Amino acid sequence: MSIADLGYSLHEWDIDALDEDDLQAIVDLSNEIRAETEPRHTDLTADEFRMFVDTPGQIRRRFVVRSDADRPVALLGTHYADDGSNPQRLRVTMTVAPRHRRRGIGTRLLDQAAGIARDLGRSTLTGEVSDTVAAGGAFLSAVGGKGTLDHHLSSLEIADLDRDLLQQWVDQGPGRAPGYSVHVFDGNFPEEYLDGLAHLYLVLERDMPTPDGQEPREWTPELVHRFMEHFLQGTEALTATAIHDESGQAAGMSQLVRRTADPGTWIVTTTMVDPVHRGHGLGKWVKGAVNLEALDRWTDGEYQETGNAVTNDAMLGINQAMGFEREYTMTEVELGVDQAEKYLASRNP
User: Fold this and answer.
1) How far is CA 152 from CA 5, 149, 245, 313, 315, in A?
2) Which CATH class is domain 163-322?
């Protein structure tokens, strides 16, 4: 059965080719679905949506399902890194508006994604589901997919941040980590930091908990600069970086960003320390430094959000000390293309 047999139509779209009304309709659908997933959701503007769905370093395709009234009711996206990493994996995002679920749209979108993967020679579809949307987990189970890693999404109220604790972490830094220094800057990374930060991004992807078999992508200074330049179109950023003074190596970092359209919510993009430099309390030092800077600069903060793999005990410990509490859980999932096609065949005997 085709998507047309269900009373819908499937269209591939290019974000740069959409007119303002068509783009806004897709943004409205995305916001409706995000509100279901995220407990304290605030709507993305069209400019923010464009920024978040068009990040550098990825090769993408996008599809929209329209109803007979020509309104968007479902979205499909596929992407993979442009550096050749993870050649067997295709990342898939697939969302259906609640009022249009259980009509076979998800199955037709899975068919489209599996076909793209086959054409690319990729054998595994990957994605994520949220425990706030039961339909996602139910669909995953029905098609034979599996969860591979849980991430807790947690938050705290800015008013509850313990400034004294953060200051203690910063004050203890030079004593616990002699030979290191921490620098905080806003906006894009200074040119002299780009080589070191590219190394940290690579280390982050290499060492953070990930599903089995997932490879880190290659980060270059140019990509790091372009990545930040892209996101600063709609966000502000503060970054604390720990430097090993003798070698000049970047040893760790912690970053906070806030959306221009939602300045009251601070988002932790990363906190990490290179394993070579661990054991000196650098994680607490950079975490304390960037939060103190944000408290001084961003005086209208209301909430801070972060995400951590449930197996990352070190970061979970720091975040729990700060007062973060879990709001919901996202689960990394995967589905073999062979298994997807087996399911699809059973639905189209």
Assistant:
1) 39, 10, 34, 12, 12
2) alpha beta
